[in-house]
Write a structure and sequence with these properties.
about 0% strand, about 60% helix, mainly alpha
Length: about 325
């Protein structure tokens, strides 16, 4: 059977490439002597005309088309020639060729000639742009809101457990007279700043407002939120374990950290709920001790800083 690109073009010149189905692509492959790869490209991967025009050398490895390097290079050359002869199809598919557009006023007479000077480097640029276009499309991950809801429930459950643990560790805080504050070079040589802790919490509130503003305009806000909930919940869960295992002495004599005596379980639950609703912050009226081994304020400030600086809109 006689075959070749010219014979194929004569037979198919009435059908634009962007309207080809897999059978047309199969005929084109056979006409260009790529018979061994017809099954893999057309039958297995379902490559039609638009897919053929966007096919790149990177796709051979990404989708494991299994072409030897010689056949892969020859197929790329054939694809470039096909693109050169299918400019209209490329335009309909929105695949840029990086050819300067002439305005309709004054230079409209050059429209019929502007595609005649397309070089293989222009087609190579268009292939690169096609790869970038596909890569950009694949970045549009689905929001999967249900995962965000699950991670939010997970973090809130952990925070509630943390509040209960804080009630327990507060009752186990070591006696200051028996276990004095540990020596610290900084704290022992600098005066106490009464408003520093309040300022720390106000900074945390400010960072939270900044993160909320970022999430409001972020195109992947649900993905960022579920990562925040998952990481934050896990960090505070580890904090619970750390606080239960090790109780450090009160860091300074200026702190009032006497163990609280609760009349019953209901009083302890009420205290835990107050800690949960107040988010463990002193500016919300929460006063707790015994969690010095693993600072919750440090965790929050660190997480907020990381998510604000690393998030990309």
């Amino acid at each position: 059977m006689e075959r070749g690109p010219d014979i194929f073009d004569d037979a198919m010149n009435t059908t634009p490439v962007d309207q080809w189905d897999t059978k047309d692509v199969e005929k084109w492959l056979i006409a260009n002597y790529f018979d061994p790869h017809v099954s893999q490209i057309c039958d297995v991967n379902g490559c039609d005309g638009p897919s053929l025009l966007m096919l790149t050398e990177a796709d051979f490895h990404l989708y494991n088309l299994g072409l030897p390097i010689g056949d892969a290079k020859r197929l790329i050359i054939a694809l470039r020639k096909l693109q050169l002869s299918s400019v209209d199809s490329m335009k309909r598919l929105g695949l840029p060729l990086h050819v300067g557009e002439n305005s309709l006023s004054g230079q409209g007479c050059q429209r019929s000639h502007r595609y005649a000077s397309i070089s293989e480097s222009d087609v190579g640029d268009s292939l690169t742009s096609s790869v970038e276009l596909i890569a950009e499309t694949t970045k549009r991950f689905p929001p999967e809101i249900w995962k965000t809801v699950i991670s939010a429930v997970y973090m809130n459950t952990v925070l509630l457990v943390t509040s209960c643990v804080m009630v327990i560790v507060h009752d186990r805080v070591p006696d200051v007279e028996k276990y004095p504050p540990l020596p610290d070079i900084f704290l022992d040589n600098f005066p106490t700043i009464p408003w520093a802790f309040t300022l720390c919490e106000l900074i945390a509130v400010g960072l939270m407002l900044i993160l909320i503003a970022i999430l409001f305009i972020h195109k992947h806000r649900f993905i960022v939120m579920r990562r925040l909930f998952s990481i934050g919940g896990t960090v505070f869960l580890l904090r619970c374990i750390s606080m239960l295992i090790t109780s450090l002495s009160v860091p300074g004599v200026h702190l009032q950290c006497a163990p609280k005596t609760h009349a019953n379980l209901a009083a302890e639950i009420k205290e835990a709920v107050q800690i949960y609703l107040g988010m463990g912050m002193a500016i919300q009226g929460v006063r707790c001790c015994g969690d010095y081994m693993f600072s919750g304020h440090t965790c929050v400030l660190t997480l907020l800083n990381f998510f604000i600086t690393e998030c990309r809109c």
